[in-house]
Amino acid sequence: MKWDDLRRSRNVEDRRGTWGGGLGRGVSIGGGGIILVLLASLLLGVNPLEVLGGLQGAPPSAQVQENPADDRTADFVSAVLGDTEDTWNTIFQRQLGADYQEPRLVLFSGGVESACGFAQTASGPFYCPLDQRVYLDTAFFRQIQAAAGPDADFARAYAIAHEVGHHVQHLLGISDQAQRQMARSSTGTRNAISVRLELQADCLAGVWGHYTAQRGLINNTDLQSALNTAAQIGDDYLQKQSRGYVVPDAFTHGSSEERVSWFRRGLQSGDIRQCDTFGR
Length: 280
Description:
This protein is of the alpha/beta class. Helices cover 52% and strands 9% of the residues. The chain is built from ten helices and six strands; from the N terminus they run E-H-H-H-E-E-E-E-E-H-H-H-H-H-H-H. A four-stranded mixed β-sheet has the order 1-2-6-5. A hairpin with a 4-residue loop joins strand 5 and strand 6. Helix 1 packs across helix 9, helix 3 packs across helix 5 and helix 5 crosses helix 8. The radius of gyration is 17 Å and the shape is globular.
């Protein structure tokens, strides 16, 4: 992925080296957080139940550093976020006739306090609609690179773009409507709605990817790496890896085939209207 010449975002907060204050609350993880707990657990070789159990509690509060550290990872995140800002500003104006409100992205290490609760590294990237921030521990990037190899940049960018996709859902009122419906639904229906939300975020990430491809920023190797990543965080793939069998009724993010299909739909169309997972 050719990202060195991309505009850097000013909406990055670097909290690495600090711990956000916590009150022992349970974390509210959105945007693929739970499924990424499983992925991170598989990569790290630990029991995902132990990881999820570790999301309770928080260490003492500390000061927040507002400026990104001058390192390659922070620079990459700032570049990708800046490009999503430019892309979504254009899409909102041309396809929706509206202004795009840019989210902030928080880099953290170890743990972080968000408006949705306290989260640790194992939560993976997540979006909190209450403060309109994407949260990312850069250790997760190292795990992606270890699994995907030297051509992992677009796979890492896909993770950011997926969370930004949840922000787009929030701006359009989709996630709020879905949450209201989930609050009065059975477990099976809640899971089905969650799958639709996650697949839509995959498609929206693909919409952003469409325009990066148009500008020659990614090649076929980059695309294949991202598609492989999407396949490896499908519910069926992760359940098979962790349990040895698949339970479709327990899906919350979609199967590997579905995630790849919706990501590819956004990539091919570049049209936000093609991402209506609720109308199909």
